[in-house]
Amino acid sequence: MNKGGKLIVFSAPSGSGKTTIVKHLLAQDDLNLEFSISAASRDARGEEVNGKDYYFISTEEFKKHIKNDDFLEWEEVYRDNFYGTLKSEVERIWSLGKNVIFDIDVAGGLRIKHKFPNETLAVFVKPPSIDELKIRLKKRSTESEDKINMRIAKASVELATAPQFDVVIKNYDLTIALEEAHQLVKDFVDKK
């Protein structure tokens, strides 16, 4: 892969607020960011749009991409449920002269950091508590109780990885978290 701009990774357990933070940062012109659209081997949920929220591809197609080494990182999150970042997506963004911002799971975020240690700012968004996470996930009303419990179990494991990230933002107060995230990213993209 040709090296281009910076890579900014936001990872966190589901319900921590990372997507809200990433959307806020994308709206800040001074950061010159473009969203990295992940590939997913699942169907669109609710209002999700192919090519905007995710590239929705079949499990077979996803496995073909794995075999061809087309991914910067990928993971089988649940059985036959794959997510990943296509190398072509990062190259597309770099060719626009922009920095890449990721909203991805913890394992994927750490893989990108290990592959591009100097170009990557890896940020972990920490929720106030597991209980608060459960409340936020239930408020979404997009998943079954079983799926929520699976996410909560996974969150406990993910929280233990926080020290492996460059920075941890505690999302106890969204306004403060947004300001902190903006300053962190601004300092990183301005650094030569």
Describe the overall structure.
- The chain is α/β, with parallel strands linked by helices.
- The chain has one domain (7-190): Rossmann fold.
- The protein has seven helices and nine strands, in the order βαβββαββαβαβααβα.
- The chain has helices at residues 18-26, 59-67, 87-95, 106-115, 130-140, 145-159, 174-190; strands spanning 7-11, 33-35, 38-40, 54-56, 71-78, 81-86, 99-103, 120-126, 167-170.
- The protein has a five-stranded parallel sheet, with helices on both faces.
- A hairpin with a 2-residue loop joins β5 (71-78) and β6.
- The longest helix has 17 residues, at 174-190.
- The radius of gyration is 16 Å and the shape is globular.
- Its main location: cytoplasm.
- Belongs to the guanylate kinase family.
- Keywords: ATP-binding, Cytoplasm, Kinase, Nucleotide-binding, Transferase.
- This is Guanylate kinase.
- Its EC number is 2.7.4.8.
